[in-house]
Amino acid sequence: MNCREAQALLGAYVDGELDLVRSLDAEAHVRECPACSAALERLHALHTAVSCHAPYYDAPPELHRKLAARLESKEQWPRVWWPALAAACLLAALVLWTRAPSGLRPASSAIERDVVAAHVRSLLATHLMDVPSSDRHTVKPWFAGKLDFAPEVQDLSAQGFTLAGGRLDYIDGRTVAALVYQRRLHTINVFTWPANRADTSPSVESLQGFHVVHWVRHGMEWWAVSDLAGDELAELARLL
Ligand SMILES: [Zn+2]
After folding, report:
1. Pick from 54-68, 83-97, 110-124, 218-232: least confident
2. Which band of pLDDT confidence, cut at 50, 70 and 90, is reported for residue 187?
3. Ligand 1: centre distance to CA 208 (Å)
4. In which element (H, E) is residue 190 found?
5. How far is the CA of 164 from the centre of ligand 1 (A)?
6. Residue 182's beta-bridge partner residues?
7. Are the C-beta atoms of residues 208 and 123 closer than 8 Å to each other?
8. Ligand 1 centroid distance, CA of 192 (Å)
9. What is the 124 CA–ligand 1 centroid distance (Å)?
10. Distance from the CA of 19 to the center of ligand 1, in angstroms?
11. Average of per-residue pLDDT across 11-26
């Protein structure tokens, strides 16, 4: 990667929008290149300044309700009230720019983005595990006193999912348990925390080149994320 390529990616890098491979490429270049490193510093400073100081406006409840109703029915699109849509785009841009919690997006997709971001962060930051161990009798007690719930930790090495360890992470505004499994060369992050909704069966989605499986079981939220194939990740979801 040369400077021109690196600098074209830095904005997306700072916003956490690059896939893992391009993030790693960009980081490798920045480590070696003082000019791009300085450019990245400036972007970080700008990003922080905007996040801290840019004004943030909530949509009035009435506009919010109307837009939500419109967005729910795709067949309504041709009759969308354009000024409202323009206002929504502006608000969405502000919301995304300031990284404020967004009421315009459904909660699950915001969490899904959190989950993928946490996965990428864990791979980039050499902070994959606080407690590296394949022994669930080591991993499970490690969480005691660090969380207000006890995550279920299983060793699934017989089924091809090797427990590698655990750590704390931060998803959807709360501290959660992150369990790390390995399958062949793939790293899987499994996030869990108490749910406040009914059980759901595992559903597979993909986001930013990763597969994400989400389910609710026995009062616990579960999210698994990896570059592993979706059906293999769904198999892990059934086993957990
Ligand atoms: Zn450079």
Report:
1. 83-97
2. very high
3. 25
4. strand 186-194
5. 36
6. 162, 187
7. no
8. 39
9. 20
10. 19
11. 86
> Mean per-residue pLDDT for 191-199?
93
CATH code assigned to 107-239? 3.30.200.100
User: pLDDT band for position 79 (50/70/90)?
Assistant: low
* 6 Cα–ligand 1 center, Å: 6
Cβ neighbour number for residue 158 with a 10 Å cutoff: 8
Q: What is the pLDDT of residue 81?
A: 62
3-class SS string, 12-54: HHHCCCCCHHHHHHHHHHHHHCHHHHHHHHHHHHHHHHHHHHC
Q: Taking 80 as the threshold, does the pLDDT of residue 65 lie above it?
A: yes
Domains of the chain, by residue range, sit at: 3-53, 61-98, 107-239
Residue 7 CA to ligand 1 center (angstroms) comes to 7
Long-range contacts of 61-67 (CB under 8 A, 24+ apart): 63/87, 63/88, 64/103, 64/104, 67/104
Encoding tokens for residue 38?
A: 């300085």
What six digits make up the tokens of 107? 């909660």
Closest CA to 178 of 132, 135, 229, 230: 132
- How long, in residues, is the chain? 240
Report the candidate in 149, 175, 176, 153 with the shortest Cα–Cα distance to residue 165. 153
Q: Is the pTM of this model over 0.85?
A: no
Locate all alpha helices (DSSP H) within 75-210, ordered by sequence: 82-98, 107-124, 136-143
Residue 1 alpha carbon to ligand 1 centre in Å? 8
